[in-house]
Structure formats: C-alpha cells, structure tokens
Amino acid sequence: MSSIEGKRILITGGSRGIGEALVRTLAAHGAKVAFTYRSSATNAEKIQSELEAAGHWAKAYQSDAAKYEDAEKLVTAVLEDLESLDVLINNAGITKDNLMLRMDESQWDQVIETNLKSVFNLTKQVLKPMMRNRAGSIINMSSVVGVFGNAGQANYAASKAGIIGFTKSIAKELGSRNIRCNAIAPGFIETDMTDAMSDKARDTIVSNIPMKRLGTTDDVAKLVMFLSSDDSSYISGQVVSICGALNC
Ligand code: NAP
Are 157 and 213 contacting, i.e. CB atoms less than 8 angstroms apart? Predict the structure, then answer.
C-alpha cells in the first residue's frame, strides 16, 4: 500500500459519502487530514472525534466550497494548523438533475459553482504553499458523466468535463514546479447519491456495468491514496476512471 504517512491533506466535502471514506482512510494511514463540510456539522464532528479517539489527526472546518472568500479563510486557518499542505482533494459536489427543457438557471448555476468554481477557488489558495514546498498533488473528483455525458445531467456533465480541462491545464502550467494535478472519474459508487435510486433503477445500472456491481467508497479511497503518495510522482494531467469498465 502506498505511504501517505505525515502528508498534510485538505479534502473538500468530507462529511459524507466518498469524502468521508477519504478522510477516514487517509487519516488512518497516518496523514494529517483537514476536511470541510457545508451543512453536516454533526456528522463532521463525529468523524473528527472518532478519528482523534483512535489517535489520528483530523479536523473539520465549515466552509462553502462555492464561495471564494470561504476558500481564502479556510486555507488560512488550515495553514495555521498544519503549516503547509502536500495534497488538495477537490471532492465536494452536488447534483441538480433535470432535462434541458426544464432546467432552470439556478440549477445550472448551483451545480457549476459548487462542482467547478470550487475547484478554482481551492486550487488558487493552495498554489503558493505548494510552490514554496516545491511539491504538491491536487486530485479533482470528476465523473464518467464528465467524459461521456448523460441525459438529464447537462449541468453536472458540464461541471465535471470542465474539471478535466482545468486538471490538464494546471498539470501543464505547474509541472515545472513539481505540482501534479490529476482527475478521478468514478462511475456509480455506493453513497447517499446512489442510495436515492429505486431498486429497479439500481438493478438496471448494475446490469450495464461489466463488473456487475457498484463501486465502493473504499475502492475510490485506495486510488486517492496512490495519487496522494510519492508512488505516483510521475503521474500528472491524467483522468483515472474507476467504474468497473462502464463506458470504457
Ligand atoms: P455526497 O454523498 O452527496 O457528499 C457530498 C459531500 O460534498 C458532502 O460532504 C457535502 O457536505 C459536500 N458538499 C456539497 N456541497 C458543498 C459545498 N458547497 N461546500 C462544501 N462541501 C459541500 O456525494 P458523493 O457521492 O460522496 O460524491 C463526492 C464527489 O464524487 C462529488 O464531486 C461527486 O460529483 C463525485 N462522484 C460521485 C459519484 C457517485 O456515484 N457517488 C460518481 C461520480 C462522481 P454536507 O454534508 O455538509 O452537505
């Protein structure tokens, strides 16, 4: 297993789902993990206290990833606690699905601001500390929907495709500073997002996945561990799909 012992990591949207699994796994493997939530304060505090009780370092911060000023304040506070940052994981994301004919401006704006603008907001804040360290790994949570599109998700697909263009550009711009930037494109992963599906919809999806199962948050956490570690030190500008061969 790749070593992330002592890495200082910031994760957005760590209070539930994939983000929660990332916080728990990375902290349990010796990283110092700062993580954000928007509204799930009780769950975020529970995650922090359980990890602290187990002797790990994790701290929750309330911060809206869609707001530039929140990102500025957040990274200032995290740097006071951790002194520097080795890894940024832009994970926070939402869906507001609708067919294009019915999609309103607010559904478009909320998804683009939370999923895409957040990646700009946070990346902007961590660049200087990473440049001072002459090292850094930025991991952006995209989706297979950003690669292949999906009916009823034009806003979400646009936000996740935007993340891919951003990721490749940052990798080229900052490669000479030893700052890596990669995107992960999960397929269907078991979380609150997928729990909301009916049994019938779930069965249809599983039957279309060549590996005949949804992914787990643990599957994603193992990939994130690798991209956070020095074992991936020559991997940058890539989109790594984790989707059980769906849409490959
Ligand atoms: P989830 O269970 O709905 O959790 C979303 C997390 O993001 C929560 O911690 C939530 O915080 C946080 N969040 C949402 N808006 C935020 C904001 N404005 N500021 C800060 N935090 C915010 O979602 P998930 O399924 O784990 O998905 C995580 C990421 O993976 C997303 O980017 C998603 O698009 C992507 N993804 C998921 C799947 C899947 O199958 N699950 C597939 C492909 C890609 P609160 O709890 O406070 O609301």
Answer: no
